[in-house]
Design a protein that fits this description.
The chain is α/β, with parallel strands linked by helices and about 300 residues long. The chain has one domain: Ribokinase (UDP-N-acetylmuramoyl-L-alanine:D-glutamate ligase), CATH 3.40.1190. Helices cover about 35% and strands about 25% of the residues.
């Protein structure tokens, strides 16, 4: 690969998504008619895919650092990554089981309930740390910068190592928990993520601050930013379809998403929003935070309609 390419590494789960969408209102104990779809997914996978649709392979190298099993789904996952020019050099194949995400949606496309099984990824944490160490060493030797993206399935042990080895001078770090339950061990410990760019929702923000008083995304993004502030970091807090707020050293911004009309599935919308935000920010480095958020919102609306 050409050293002139900017490298992005996405660490986290590659899952097999199983999504049920009823064709009538759903309720407990009721056997509903509807549709069941299966496809590759997971936060890290979704973000890598989203980035690949905007960032061209001549200027960017996308690397998925994850763990999957060897089974009948493996070839489809690998083919999808290959078709989207996502590097699998750091994709570990271990055991014969894939991590899975099972989701039941409402008739309107909102998530009714879900189950996340990430044992395959967690079983490979030592290998993930080893890959991370090799990546860091290579960039330090080359004095080349890179972007690191971590999803909420990454363990605290791994993130502890990241904090030690990945300085802001070379590495831009993003953390996207994507599940408020993953933040339980970081309760009232927002300062842990000093040096990271945080992309979280309102419920996750309240966990990091250990407060039920943050009633809106603007207050939350400001409160979190005060805890993690450095020369380059930013905090973005979303409140579902209501609003997205961002704070950096240069700007405080908020964007009101367009109203979602129709019964589009919301699955993966947050991952897409982040991927589109980062893509726009990379391709338009002088753009304001508000403009980047606005562009991400517009693209996410298109994503929802295209994946219905």
């Amino acid at each position: 690969m050409s050293l002139s390419k900017k490298k992005i590494y996405i660490f986290g789960c590659t899952m097999w998504d199983i999504v049920g969408k009823p064709s009538e209102p759903i309720s407990k104990g009721k056997d509903c008619s509807g549709f069941i779809n299966e496809r590759p997914g997971g936060v890290a996978f979704n973000i890598a895919l989203g980035l690949s649709k905007i960032l061209n392979k001549q200027s960017y190298e996308l690397n998925l650092v994850s763990v999957i099993g060897k089974n009948e789904k493996t070839r489809l996952i690998l083919t999808t990554l290959e078709e989207h020019n996502i590097n699998t050099k750091y994709l570990l194949i271990k055991g014969n089981q894939n991590d899975k995400y099972l989701s039941i949606e409402t008739k309107n496309g909102e998530i009714f309930g879900s189950i996340n099984s990430s044992s395959t990824f967690l079983s490979g944490q030592r290998d993930i740390i080893e890959h991370f160490s090799q990546i860091c060493l290579a960039h330090k030797d080359e004095n080349s910068d890179a972007i690191f993206i971590f999803d909420g399935n990454c363990t605290r042990e791994f993130l502890d190592y990241v904090k030690e080895e990945a300085s802001e001078e070379i590495f831009t770090k993003y953390f996207i928990p994507a599940n408020f339950l993953k933040l339980a061990e970081f309760k009232n410990d927002a300062i842990y993520f000093k040096g990271f760019n945080l992309f979280i929702n309102l419920k996750e923000a309240n966990i990091l601050i250990d407060s039920k008083k943050l009633k809106n995304a603007m207050d939350a993004s400001n409160a979190i930013f005060k805890k993690i502030r450095t020369e380059t970091c930013l905090t973005i807090v979303t409140d579902g379809p209501n609003i997205a707020c961002g704070v950096s050293n240069e700007e405080v911004a908020k964007v009101q998403p367009e109203v979602i009309r129709g019964t589009y599935s919301r699955l993966g919308a947050g991952d897409a929003f982040f991927a589109y935000f980062l893509s726009y920010k990379e391709l338009n480095p002088s753009a304001s935070l508000k403009k980047s958020l606005y562009a991400a919102n517009r693209k996410t609306q298109n994503y929802l309609q295209a994946n219905d």
